[in-house]
Amino acid sequence: MPRVQGFAQRVRTNLQVYAVGARVAILERLQYPLASLMFMVNVLIEPIIYLVVWSSATVAQGGAVGGYTAGQFAGYYIIWTFVRQFNLAVGPDNFNWRIKNGTLAGELLRPVHPIDIDLAWNLGFKVMQVVYWIPIGVILWLMFKPEVNPEAWQLLAFPIVLLLAAYVRFFVMWLVGLMCFWTERIDSLIELYFAAELLFSGRLVPLEIMPAWAQNVAGYLPFQWTFYFPIELLLGRVTINEFGIGVFAQVAWILAAYVGIRLIWVRAVRRFTAVGA
Amino acid sequence: MSTNSITVKDLRKTYKVPEREAGLKAAIKSLVARKTKDVHAVDGISFQIEPGEIVGFLGPNGAGKTTTLKMLSGLLYPTSGELSVAGHVPQKREREFLQQITLVMGQRSQLNWDIPAIDSYDLYRAIYGIPQEQFIADRDKMIEVMQLKDLVKKPVRNLSLGERMKAEMVGALLHQPGVLFLDEPTIGLDVTMQRRIRAFIQEYNQRYNATVLLTSHYMADVQALCKRVIVIHHGKLLFDGDLTQLVERFSAQKTLVLTMSDMNGKTPDMAQYGTVVTQEPNRVVLRVAKSDAPQVTARLLADLPVTDLTVDDPPIEEVIESVFDAPETSE
């Protein structure tokens, strides 16, 4: 029969949901090892192309492009592959799918916010991706001989920045996904979002190589804090001041996206429950 | 202390549906002036269900059954009317309310397809904050009753429809909800599976005094589980009462089954008594108007060497069909 939960009990419940949800995601990944491997290959193709292109460009330019040597480019894109596993998030198009096939209706019947289930699942997913990445990372490291020279504090700060990067991306993408409650035709918006991310996150090229206007625009967007910032930190190219500003920006974006989700979620559910699925 | 009762007062749900003529011209016109039509999916229904009751919620496709169940479970916001389920207003979707209900939709799976059901159950335990010992005891008991012992260890995608439905039922009841909304829980299942699901629902209802609102197109489900039925059509309430009363009220005909002794090869003209459903040498099934049944019975007994005669109501499916064909009147 019903269990009325106090605040402490709710926190305990949520922690349990994270633990069990993460475990379920791990089990799911283990269920399809080949699919997981193919997903990994798919994710790695992109940075390896960039890595080969920029390595060739540095050789053609006599050793460096935009202040990056071939070894630093190698380091940039190998760290990229690791950061990418960590900042995988629930894509905005996932909401469309959940609304259409009725999964969301089932989630709304549970006494836990769907974002908690997503956070839990995403955590387990990341763990498995990182495990799958390790051998590939080692091979890339041996093949491309990257120049990575972080100081001790940068090495210690990296996990924090990486975690924050993952949650900036997670919350911002969740917020964008809520648009699906108003329109099923969100594909163009999603493409625009990913195009912007590609350009302004340091995913395509390090932001330092981008024109000044692009760097200015990137300053107003959340993307660079999800790729460029953690990569540059581990490369040893971030000062302590830049680190402080970066962490502040990451926390600010997480809070802004979270508040946005809180505000829009109520209206989104109201809209969903008005029109049904 | 809340009870598991359900109260519905003048409940309405109206959808605005875009509407336009066929063709390019109409499509362009609709860009500027979009026309919409109001569709009254649920149109002012009221009923009360007491704790522990199992009520059949009947109606043809599109009658408004699922819309009503979704409003009762907080998935749809009513256009107007009052709702109370287990002491809560469903559309507020309070955590305590969601702890007390379950909605099972026969055509939609809530279990994770990629992993065994037993792993999904563990996630439900965490979501509903079920104490570990109670969870294991209840889970194992339900698995045993549903004969799912080995099946819950297989990925859900590898289960048959019936096996998956049984696993869904277990998952839906692990948190011991006091109010069950079951939307076609036996759809597409074979007779044995249907029977097992029915028995499970019945046992759960008796054990926990749970309130059950059940929709099903299988009258066997309704007859086995529901003493009371609510019938809706075009969003309006047509009938609310005992199943036997429904038959009494909407069945315009009676079925007479006669067995006769040997008539030495003579074949009597049975059409004079009523509509002949089947005729064999010594056995005839007739359909007569309910009001004529006493006179026809008397004539048959007087005219023919009847050795046995039974007067039955027509099958429940036929009665329900006649309810749906009845003119629209609400009560």
List the helices and strands and how they pair.
The complex is a heterodimer of chains A (277) and B (331).
Chain A: H1 7-31, H2 33-60, E1 64-65, E2 68-69, H3 70-86, H4 93-100, H5 103-108, H6 114-144, H7 152-177, H8 187-200, H9 212-219, H10 228-235, H11 240-275
Antiparallel strand pairs in A: 1-2
Helix pairs in contact in A: 1-6, 2-3, 3-6, 3-10, 7-10, 7-11
Chain B: E1 6-18, H1 24-32, E2 36-49, E3 54-58, H2 65-72, E4 80-85, H3 95-100, E5 101-105, H4 117-128, H5 132-145, H6 161-173, E6 179-183, H7 191-208, E7 211-215, H8 219-225, E8 228-233, E9 236-242, H9 243-250, E10 253-260, E11 275-279, E12 283-289, H10 293-303, E13 306-312, H11 316-325
Parallel strand pairs in B: 3-7, 3-8, 5-6, 6-7
Antiparallel strand pairs in B: 1-2, 1-4, 8-9, 10-12, 10-13, 11-12
CATH architecture of the largest domain in chain B: 3-Layer(aba) Sandwich
Tell me the fraction of residues in β-strands of chain A, as a range.
under 5%
Number of helices of chain B: 11
**Class by alpha and beta content of chain A:** mainly alpha
> Helix segment count of chain A?
11
Q: What is the string of helix and strand elements of chain A?
A: HHEEHHHHHHHHH
Based on secondary structure, the structural category of chain B is alpha/beta
